[in-house]
Write a structure and sequence with these properties.
two-stranded antiparallel sheet; 7 strands; 11% strand; Rossmann fold
């Protein structure tokens, strides 16, 4: 068996010069694999470049997820499917396919406090980011507060345009509290302008029929909610609190006692 090639300083310098320095993270093991598997030059080069493409795609998705406001811990692979929460799996699988995003449809995720609505909505955002859709996630009260503030510096139209441009807009905790005339008008504009052209996901503890009573202008409210629902998948969650499963636990591992404090050498008088 021939010895495994080593990564020379010259090779390291060349990789860094052509901005492939991250290849060095996996290059030694790839060289070892190439040696044991008797890979050809082209096959080895393809393997190394595939590593780099995967690394760049992952890094890019992470950056875009942060820009979108997505919690990095709320991804599909981290969802605890053993929890006693019920929901329609066929509807969820359809949402995960992101066909609703391609079609410009919406999703409304409903259920009591703590069952994982925000988690699932965020997970959809991560899937969309990895498929190179533009995504924006924001809690409803913060979104409306930000839009209200934007009226003071004349940036409101620009902020609305940003919300209309994204492929997937996720509004979390919608209708937790009453919406005044200004908030109702903003919600109306966002939903109506995005209707069947871009996708919106809304999570709420309340059903859509209850939203009407919380919005100041009944006509705008009815018009917005009717459009949203007419193009929406509805996912209802029920069961035990998902948050309770995320509480920190107590381990039985022994904890090292702190070292004794040294005594002062100074004599008391």
């Amino acid at each position: 068996m021939s010895p495994t090639p080593t990564v020379t300083p010259e090779l390291k310098a060349l990789l860094r010069r052509v901005k492939l320095g991250r290849c060095l993270d996996t290059l030694p093991e790839r060289l070892a694999l190439a040696s044991t598997a008797a890979m050809g030059h082209a096959e080895f080069l393809e393997l190394v470049l595939a590593d780099e493409v995967t690394r760049r795609d992952t890094s890019s998705a992470d950056r875009r997820a942060r820009t979108a406001g997505l919690d990095p811990s709320m991804t599909l692979d981290r969802w605890d499917d053993t929890t006693k929460i019920t929901y329609d799996r066929s509807t969820w699988n359809e949402l995960c396919s992101l066909r609703f995003v391609d079609a410009g449809h919406n999703a409304v995720i409903m259920g009591p406090v703590g069952v994982g609505k925000t988690f699932l909505a965020t997970a959809l955002g991560h899937v969309a980011v990895r498929r190179r859709h533009s995504v924006h996630f924001e809690r409803c009260d913060r979104l409306l507060k930000r839009l209200r503030a934007s009226r003071l510096d004349n940036s409101h139209d620009n902020e609305i345009r940003k919300l209309l441009r994204v492929d997937l807009l996720i509004i979390d905790d919608f209708a937790l509290q009453s919406l005044d005339a200004v908030d109702t008008a903003d919600v109306y504009e966002i939903i109506v302008e995005r209707h069947r052209t871009a996708s919106t996901v809304i999570t709420s503890n309340r059903e859509p029929v209850e939203w009407l009573g919380l919005m100041t202008d009944p006509l705008l409210a009815q018009s917005a909610i009717d459009r949203l629902q007419s193009a929406a998948h509805e996912l209802v969650l029920d069961g035990e609190s998902y948050r309770q499963r995320q509480k920190p636990g107590v381990t039985n591992e022994p904890v090292d006692a702190p070292p004794p404090r040294p005594r002062s050498s100074r004599r008391r008088t």
